[in-house]
Design brief:
Order of helices and strands: HHHHHHHHH
Number of strands: 0
Largest sheet: none
Helix content: over 70%
CATH superfamily of the largest domain: RNA polymerase sigma factor, region 2, helix turn helix motif
CATH topology of the largest domain: Rna Polymerase Sigma Factor, Chain: A
Structural class: mainly alpha
Length: 191
């Protein structure tokens, strides 16, 4: 209950154009918002560009935020809409960087850190998976990201994307099917 009071007080300070409160609020949610942006474009620089747009929109629309509703879904909705509306051209898929700027959770799931050979194989597999994900349509990529990375159920995804649940299920089904086809053609999956 105490965190809700702090967040509500912070939101009210943001609504009063308190710049320090706004920075504090964004720092609290920065990691989750960045993850959404990065999973959408899978490029660190583009994700940061999108994040800047998200921040601007949060600042702009904060006065209209309904304090009786939870903040995180509202922030996610802004991030998702910003990703979907992002007009910049994505650069071609580049391999997973060796300097650690790639997606650690994906790498951790694919290989044990103590085995160099497994790590190299995992990076190759992650690169194939990343390239395959980039071939999906924006709605499919976003639905898969929200479901598998953010752990959102169909109803929450539908609310976040402002689409019917059936449409979300369709995007997930078609996205999974397309990924399965691409990855099986590349020998990544056995059908």
């Amino acid at each position: 209950m105490r965190n809700l009071d702090i967040s509500l007080a912070l939101i009210r300070r943001c609504k009063a154009n308190d710049e320090q409160a706004f920075q504090q609020l964004l720092q609290q949610y920065e990691r989750a918002l960045y993850r959404i942006c990065w999973m959408y474009c899978q490029d660190q620089h583009e994700a940061l560009d999108i994040m800047q747009e998200v921040y601007i929109k949060v600042f702009r629309f904060m006065p209209s935020f309904d304090e009786s509703r939870p903040l995180m879904p509202w922030l996610k909705r802004i991030a998702i809409n910003t990703c979907l509306n992002y007009q910049g051209r994505r650069s071609p898929i580049q391999g997973i960087s060796l300097d650690g700027t790639g997606s650690p959770p994906l790498q951790e799931r694919l290989a044990a850190a103590d085995n160099v050979e497994n790590t190299i194989v995992a990076k190759s597999e992650a690169e194939l998976l990343r390239a395959a994900i980039q071939t999906l349509s924006s709605p499919q990529r976003m639905a898969l990201t929200l479901h598998y990375i953010e752990g959102m159920d169909y109803k929450k995804i539908a609310e976040a994307l402002d689409q019917p649940v059936g449409t979300v299920k369709s995007h997930l089904h078609r996205g999974r099917q397309q990924l399965r086809n691409i990855l099986s053609k590349q020998g990544f999956l056995e059908v």
